[in-house]
Amino acid sequence: MGVLKGVDAVLIVFSLTLPYNQEIDTNLYETWKNADDEEKEKINENLTIEAFDNVRSWYNQFTQLNDEKEKIIYLIGNKVDDVEHRIIKKVDAINLAKELSLKYFETSAITGENIDKIFSQLCLELMTKCQNKKISINLNGNKNKTGSKCCK
Asked: Residues 89-104: pLDDT tens digits?
């Protein structure tokens, strides 16, 4: 976890869908697929709690090493394109983001939905942060306090 110390931005990404590892989760997929609505809701609730516990754990690990008020942290629900297997409700993810005071996005690595938006916004926020702190960034990623404008 030491690799996160001193970073300026973090993207916490979690899956909006049923977890699937072909070797491990084949039974889960079959159980879920054959379940009635009430059973599916129970499975979804348990998996949502697990996913959100992981997000909170990652967030806590990061914030223990860094002052989160000085950092840019986005919460990203991936696989928004897989509607059939979605278990995380958008409202629940938004509420988690609010609880942690994070910006929330839903993306698809397959379709590219919101990927450009996230990185464009992240770049703008980082540039603004640099300008406000009068830090320049060279191409190697090293920061130099120079008193000049950012990214010159």
From this structure: 999 999 999 999 999 9
**CA pair distance 113, 110, nearest whole angstrom:** 8
Query: Within 13 Å and on the Cβ side, how many CA atoms surround 118?
Result: 24
**Domain formed by 2-113, architecture:** 3-Layer(aba) Sandwich (3.40)
The confidence score (pLDDT) of residue 91 equals 96
Amino acid, single-letter form, for residue 79? K
CA-to-CA distance for 41 and 91, rounded, in angstroms? Answer: 15
Q: Angle at which helices 37-65 and 26-34 pack, to 10 degrees?
A: 140
* Alpha-helix runs per DSSP H in the chain: 26-34, 37-65, 90-99, 115-133
- Amino acid present at 147: G
| Residue with the two structure tokens 């059939």 | 84
Q: At what angle do helices 90-99 and 37-65 cross, to 10 degrees?
A: 20
Check: CB of residue 28 under 8 Å from CB of residue 19: yes
pTM, to two decimals = 0.76
pLDDT band for 2, please (50, 70, 90 cuts): low
